[in-house]
Amino acid sequence: MSSNELPDDDREEEKDSPEEGSAFAADPGEANAESQPDSDEDELGDVVEPDDEEQPPVRVSLKKRLIALCTPTKLGVSIAVVAIVGLAWWATRPIEPVKPPEKPPEPEELYAQQIEQVLSGASTQLHTTTYEIDNEKLLLIPLEELEKAAEQRRLNLLADEQASDDDEATDESSSDSAPLPPGSSLSSSEEESGEPQVSELPKLDTVLIDEGVITDEGIATIAKIPELRHLRLRLSPITDEGLKPLLERKSIWFLNLPHSRLTEKGIRSLSALPKLRQLRVGSTLLGNDIGRALLEVKSLRGLHLIGVPLSDEGLKVIVQLPHLESLYLDDAAITESGWDWLFQNHPQLHVHINQRHHDRDPQHHKHE
């Protein structure tokens, strides 16, 4: 091979060189145009893609928008805004004035309310547990209205009895019509309307005074209540003399005088109350002789002695009451042998000792 011959690689380079030379020989502007991508530059030198203006807008989903919104920074700003709005509302909210606590009604108001309930027929009892009643306040009891109402009830009862008798006589003479039951006769106005006209008459049959002191003078007022059946006077030192007006009220069936000043004489006088069934009495003037006095009150079913030092002998006398069913004894002087005798000979009695059932009481039951 001669020195003028070139290797194959060099020949290829030479073959390529004319093309490269021709490229360089071309217009420089055309070279620059071909070497740059299809893009334009704006006046500031930024490259503007021509395809960007031709592409349609891309719709971002709601989920992506929420994700973008809930970035830590935006979330913190949102919380701060909500907090500021909440504080602004709290500071400017309308504040209602604090209402003072309701003042409890005065004793006079409570007493007047009970009297009004009696007059309206809504209640038949006067029960004072939270306020005191004295002799003067007893004068506010509407005795005149109660007396008129009691008389009207008595007349109505007589009319019902008369109507019943007339109906029976008519029924015997003629079987065409059936008699109406007692008390169901209708007036002309009732017949027209088809409904009986009911009018409540006031009635006071229960007086329970747990606070305040009632003396013999007050008993005289209470005794004027025409239909009194149940009387309880705590803390009231009623004497034998003060008890006398009450003996005229024959309707009494329950008498409770736990702090009285009664003697055996006063107990014996209770025999004037034919309907008396329950007696609760306490007095430091009563002793073992109370048994003989109680035997004269034959109508008694229940007896409660409070602070009476009754002995075994007195117990044996009391249980001779013909209709006695229950016996309550507080602070008595009865021995264990006395109780043994009682339950052996009178097992039918319901017995309480110091406000508790006796262990051997055959009628032991749970009190509510």
UniProtKB/TrEMBL annotation:
Residues 1-19, 37-55, 162-174 have a biased composition (Acidic residues). Residues 175-188 have a biased composition (Low complexity). InterPro entries: Leu-rich_rpt, LRR_dom_sf. Transmembrane segments: none annotated. Signal peptide: none annotated. Residues 1-57, 162-202 are annotated as: Disordered. This is Adenylate cyclase regulatory protein.
